[in-house]
Each structure stands twice: as structure tokens, then as C-alpha cells.
Amino acid sequence: MANTRATSSALRALAVEYKSLQEEPVEGFCVKLVNDDNLFEWEVAIFGPPDTLYMGGCFKARMKFPTDYPYSPPSIRFLTKVWHPNVYENGDLCISILHPPIDDPQSGELPCERWNPTQNVRTILLSVISLLNEPNTYSPANVDASVMYRRWRDSKGKDKEYENIIRKQAMTARAEAERDGLKVPLTLEDYCIKTQVKPNSSEQQVEMTDFYDDDYDEEYDDLSNGSEYPEEDDNDSGNGEL
After folding, report:
1. How many CB atoms lie within 10 A of CB 104?
2. pLDDT digit string (tens) for 209-238?
């Protein structure tokens, strides 16, 4: 019963968030479902912020949500090639906001910097956008990229190796996005405009009730009436050491 309640609660939370992001998009990214009948896997397009090395780029990623979301964090894997201190070779993103809220002094992260259930897709992706331009080099996922970034930063841009790689990747990512019919913002004005994202099909118009069975309301009412929330699984939600 606990697993069923957790899944129902996760579906409700994800349906509300997805509907909100479709109706009120946030500058810097857009989202869609990988499959119309699965709310636990989203495809994300993250736009490179203006006045950064990533400007003009469109970096696709996939978000996978656990069945006990939002009590456990989702995972993010870039589908677009990204050379970045906090992105592993396989595209997995390492960012504190997606790490389980445990006290781990060796990580260099405070518990308050890690995941908590008040976070959501908006806060996650805005944190990712910020991380693109301001990498965490304390515990890098890509050591070579971290060393190269620090040389670029410490030389105040005179060492061009890191910059050249990023700008080339941004141009390639933009070309791929435009081939897919996605308009990439190139100016600050375009970037900040909240444009309504039109779903690819009528099925993308998500109704929350589409993902629940008839027993859901009764189960959710049990939670609302004071029943304990489902206990978090001791197993990692999928992030692990990204």
C-alpha cells in the first residue's frame, strides 16, 4: 500500500508541475514528455544563457523521476555532448541539489544544499543553468574539464582552450536543435520572453486524472487525513555518485 501511495503522490506532483510549466514556461528551458503516457521521464531543452560561453546553445537532457518523488530527487543525463566540470563522460549531471539529503562531510556539501521535497523542476533546472556558467570545481565529475576551466578563468580568458570547446559545442547543439524545429534564443530579450510551448500532440495536453486509477482519490485522502507519508527507500534514487 505504501508503494502505491508513493506512486500516486508522485504522479500528482509531476502532473501539476508539468501542467504549470506548459501554461507558464520559464525562461531558459522547455520540457516535454518522452512518452505521452509516462510522467516519470521528461525531455528537457536547456538554452545557453546570454553573455556566457554557452549562449546560443540548446542542450538536451533527460530527467527521470523516482516513484517516491518529491521525497527523493530525480536524475538528469545530458543527451547533448557537454564538456563541463560537473558532467560525467556519459552525460550524467553532478549537482548538489540532486543529491540525497545526507550528512556527508567528505562531499564538501552542506545538507541544506542537497535535495529536499520543497524543490521542484523549476528550481532544479534554474540551478542547472546557473551551474553551466559557474561550475563547482571543488569535486568535479570531469577532472580534465575542471582543470581546463580553471586555466581559462585564472587567465581571464587568455587561455582559449576551454572557451573554444564550449563555443563549438554550443554551435553544434544549436544546429541540431534548429534541425528539430526548435527556436533557440540568441538575444537577452528572446531568452527572457516566456513563450507558450505548444505540445507535439493532443496527448501532450496532460490531464492529471489521465495517470491515476479510480482508487487514487481514496488513497490520497488517507494521506491528507493524517496518515504518514511513505518512508523513503534506503536505496539510492538513481543519482548515486553522479
Report:
1. 13
2. 455 444 444 444 443 444 443 444 444 444
Q: How far apart are CA 29 and CA 80, in angstroms?
A: 14
Residue 45's CATH number: 3.10.110.10
Q: Is residue 66 part of a domain?
A: yes
CB 23 within 8 A of CB 40: no
Q: For residue 172, which amino acid is it? A: T
Q: With contact defined as beta carbons under 8 Å apart, do 42 and 30 qualify?
A: no
Summarised one tens digit per residue, pLDDT across range 51-76 is: 999 999 999 999 999 999 999 999 99
Give me the active site residues, please: 94
The answer to the question of residue 235 being in a domain is no
Q: How many CA atoms lie within 13 A of 175 on its CB side?
A: 6
Does residue 162 fall inside a structural domain? yes
User: What is the number of helices (H) and of strands (E) in the chain?
Assistant: 6, 4
- A 10 A CB-CB count for 30 gives 19
**Cell numbers for 66:** 523516482
Nearest to 177 by CA among 48, 9, 17: 48
Q: Which residues contact 216 (CB under 8 A, 6 or more apart)?
A: 8, 11, 12
pLDDT, one tens digit per residue, over 73-122 is 999 999 999 999 999 999 999 998 998 776 565 555 666 677 899 999 99
